[in-house]
């Protein structure tokens, strides 16, 4: 991970977390979820699933990868967040 | 307990061996199914009568509940924590944002099991049921997860 990524300020981390965790209205949520999936989005999601299941072919391998990734990310987080 | 001491296999084995009716939900469930999403915690929906059994099982890993079983039953959820965080939903029924009532017993009756370590199986809702649980919180990340789940469901149907 780059040094630039390591210097993410605590305020930005807080903002990003708040954005991801905010509660959407029913209308906002349904608009997002029910939007037709474009061919490009479908291909991108399929590509990610294909890569992940090929690289980590078992649930155990995928869970272990996710745990390592979370641990690495947590190590980069500012301690004050 | 230190971060490095938490053993995920032991964690899942303890839950499996406990006999608690426990469904892995949230992003860890998506990861099991094959979606490369990020998360820091574990989310379970367990039967309201199995709180004590679940807590005893994970106590060996140093996970401490933030509420007594009685309080958890009243609140409908609680958290187990040490270096890890486990969010536990215990409501018999939980509403979605559009007021559908999702019952644990219904999801449990349809659950599927996945081997997460040699001989260790955990229960997940079906993909369609997992999609329903993503409508509990209705956060942007839930909406993103639903796009992944829609593709996983389509691929599953194609395989059948």
Please supply descriptive tags for the structure shown above.
heterodimer, A: 81 residues, mainly alpha, 5 helices, 0% strand, B: 160 residues, alpha+beta, Beta Polymerase, domain 2, two-stranded antiparallel ribbon, 7 helices, 24% strand, globular
Précis, in short:
By secondary structure, chain A is mainly α. Chain A has five helices and no strands. In chain A, 74% of the residues lie in helices and 0% in strands.
Describe it.
The complex is a heterodimer of chains A (81) and B (160). With 81 residues, chain A is mainly α. Chain A has 5 helices and no strands. Chain A is flat, with a radius of gyration of 17 Å. Chain A starts with a helix and ends in a 5-residue tail after the last helix. Chain B is an alpha+beta fold and 160 residues long. Chain B has helices spanning 8-18, 26-33, 51-59, 69-75, 104-109, 127-133, 140-159, and strands spanning 22-25, 42-46, 64-65, 77-81, 85-89, 93-95, 101-103, 112-117, 120-124. The mean pLDDT of chain B is 94. The chains are: A mainly alpha (81), B alpha+beta (160). The A-B interface holds A 19-24, 26, 29-30, 32-33, 37, 41-42, 45-46, 48-49, 51-53, 58-60, 62-64, 66-67, 69-71, 73-74 and B 3, 8-9, 28, 31-32, 34-36, 38-40, 97-98, 114-117, 135, 137-143, 146-148, 150-152, 155.
């Amino acid at each position: 991970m780059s040094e630039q990524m390591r210097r993410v300020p605590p305020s930005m981390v807080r903002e990003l977390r708040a954005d991801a965790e905010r509660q959407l209205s029913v209308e906002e949520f349904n608009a997002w979820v029910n939007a037709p999936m474009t061919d490009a989005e479908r291909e991108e999601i399929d590509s990610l699933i294909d890569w992940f299941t090929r690289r980590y072919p078992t649930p155990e391998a995928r869970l272990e990868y996710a745990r390592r990734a979370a641990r690495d990310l947590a190590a980069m987080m500012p301690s004050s967040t | 307990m230190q971060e490095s001491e938490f053993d995920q296999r032991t964690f899942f084995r303890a839950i499996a061996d406990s006999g608690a009716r426990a469904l892995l939900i949230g992003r860890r469930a998506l990861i099991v199914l094959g979606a490369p999403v990020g998360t820091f915690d574990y989310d379970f929906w367990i039967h309201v009568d199995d709180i004590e059994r679940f807590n005893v099982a994970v106590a060996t890993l140093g996970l401490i509940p933030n509420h007594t079983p009685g309080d958890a039953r009243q609140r409908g959820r609680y958290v187990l924590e040490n270096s890890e965080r486990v969010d536990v939903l215990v409501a018999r029924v939980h509403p979605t944002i559009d007021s559908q009532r999702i019952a644990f017993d219904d999801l449990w009756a349809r659950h599927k099991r996945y081997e997460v370590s040699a001989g260790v199986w955990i229960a997940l809702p079906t993909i369609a049921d997992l999609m329903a649980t993503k409508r509990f919180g209705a956060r942007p990340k839930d909406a993103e997860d639903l796009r992944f789940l829609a593709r996983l469901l389509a691929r599953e149907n194609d395989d059948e």
